[in-house]
């Protein structure tokens, strides 16, 4: 029963990444190499973030919300944006369209994040004798992170690769990218500052990911229209 629960949670956590790759044109255009490169960039970015967090953050004696510490975490979190910029603009990709490129990068980015942050806790905890909903919620959180990562990659593609975008949309693109990039700090405030429980935070992440995906899709579609 414990292994059955583990496999269910693992499929919920990592399965949507494989489904997204196989159900979209990404598999037809063989963009797996791009996703793997993006995943490696994510791992390098995560290492840089870990060094910065260990260097600049002090160990908190309480589990409360510290505005200064969280602001510093948010600033360090923008290293992810720098890593995503490198993955989108500096890596060599196959001859694929901009539309497929940002999806492949976002997919690889989200998969690496799930492996790095959720695989070990899932392997240790989901095989326990006592059933808990926490790992199912972690799987749902991984799905929300997948949507947010692809949305951020789409917004990054518009910021750095799309040259002829309407000027009226530029502030909206940057604002949305800022919101997605600071989601870890937002959820940390909800947990520590407002005392939200894990299911409430996951519900917020799922709702926000769907909203940001819709907005990113609308912005991407609007920027693809020829200017008059």
UniProtKB/TrEMBL annotation:
Keywords: Cell membrane, Endoplasmic reticulum, Membrane, Transmembrane, Transmembrane helix
Membrane-spanning intervals of the chain: 39-59, 71-92, 168-190, 202-220
Any one Pfam family match given in the protein's UniProt record, by short name: DUF2053
Principal place of residence: membrane
Location in or out of the cell: Cell membrane; Endoplasmic reticulum membrane
Its membrane topology: Multi-pass membrane protein
A cellular-component GO term for this protein: endoplasmic reticulum membrane
Family label: Belongs to the TMEM147 family.
Name of the featured protein: BOS complex subunit TMEM147
Species for this entry: Rubroshorea leprosula
């Amino acid at each position: 029963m414990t292994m059955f629960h583990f496999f269910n949670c693992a499929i919920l956590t990592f399965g949507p990444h494989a489904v997204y790759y196989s159900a979209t044109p990404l598999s037809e255009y063989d963009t797996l190499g791009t996703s793997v490169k993006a995943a490696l960039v994510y791992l390098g970015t995560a290492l840089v973030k870990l060094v910065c967090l260990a260097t600049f953050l002090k160990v908190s004696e309480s589990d409360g919300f510290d505005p200064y510490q969280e602001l510093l975490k948010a600033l360090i979190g923008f290293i992810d944006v720098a890593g995503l910029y490198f993955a989108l603009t500096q890596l060599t990709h196959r001859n694929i369209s901009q539309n497929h490129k940002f999806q492949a990068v976002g997919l690889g980015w989200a998969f690496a994040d799930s492996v790095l942050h959720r695989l070990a806790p899932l392997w240790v905890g989901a095989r326990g004798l006592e059933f808990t909903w926490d790992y199912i919620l972690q799987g749902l959180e991984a799905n929300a992170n997948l949507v947010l990562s692809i949305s951020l990659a789409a917004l990054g593609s518009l910021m750095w690769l799309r040259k002829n975008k309407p000027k009226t949309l530029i502030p909206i693109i940057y604002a949305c990218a800022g919101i997605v990039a600071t989601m870890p700090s937002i959820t940390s405030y909800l947990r520590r500052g407002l005392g939200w429980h894990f299911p409430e935070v996951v519900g917020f992440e799922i709702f926000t990911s769907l909203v940001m995906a819709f907005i990113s899709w609308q912005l991407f579609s609007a920027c693809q229209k020829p200017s008059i």
